[in-house]
User: What shape does this take?
Amino acid sequence: MPTILITGANRGMGLEFARQYAAEGWRVLGTVRDPMAGRALSEAGGEVYVCDVADPAQVARLKASLAGVGLDVVLLNAGIYGEKQDFGDVDAAAFMRVMAVNALAPLKLAEAFADQLAGPKVIAAVSSMMGAMSDNTSGGSYAYRAAKAALNMVMKNLAVDLAPRGILTVALSPGWVRTDMGGPNAPLDAATAVAGMRKVVAGLRVEDSGALIHYDGSRLAW
Ligand SMILES: NC(=O)c1ccc[n+]([C@@H]2O[C@H](COP(=O)([O-])OP(=O)(O)OC[C@H]3O[C@@H](n4cnc5c(N)ncnc54)[C@H](OP(=O)(O)O)[C@@H]3O)[C@@H](O)[C@H]2O)c1
Assistant: This one.
């Protein structure tokens, strides 16, 4: 049975990833921050682990809980939008928090779990078009944009460093999706975005490793 580790699996796209992978027969190991928030994940067929991805002690505890478990895919989904990030109003602590959760935590999780990857060996991160220089025509969102741009570089760097171990990486762009973060006006539902991203992960080739790929399969410019 293929096994996937998904961060931020209690709601939004993380929960939808858990639902879809579990429905396809995968063993789903999902993380939640709040121990009381695991019910939907559990009902979706996932195993619930508690982990704030920005807390090194909790990541170490997760690693210990999953010792010896072979993973086919590590899906780094957990993320925050942040606050106070318009020009002239950028809050330093809020900025650093977004960087810690969206960019540094995925790297530390990759470091923690790379040696447990077996089978297809994919590390995928949910990034965003907002991290792409090529797509920035509206400005603003300094912390979120900077953190997703940093995440894209982390995934590209991991692709280089982990290639000798046969590990492929990808930064996924889900589009604008109706979740708590995306809001009610987003054009895409989570089921569609997640189905598309799962297809990208399943079809990932060596030559794609490190790329930023949209949920519809198109490769995006940085
Ligand atoms: N929705 C969009 O349109 C959109 C577009 C592009 C990219 N994305 C990216 O897609 C990913 C999922 O977003 P979403 O739209 O599904 O958002 P969401 O509904 O707000 O869900 C975010 C998830 O991340 C978890 N999380 C946040 N901080 C965490 C931390 N420090 N440690 C562990 N888990 C943490 C949340 O847990 P709690 O419930 O404990 O807060 C929640 O499970 C994010 O990386 C986001 O940046 C979203």
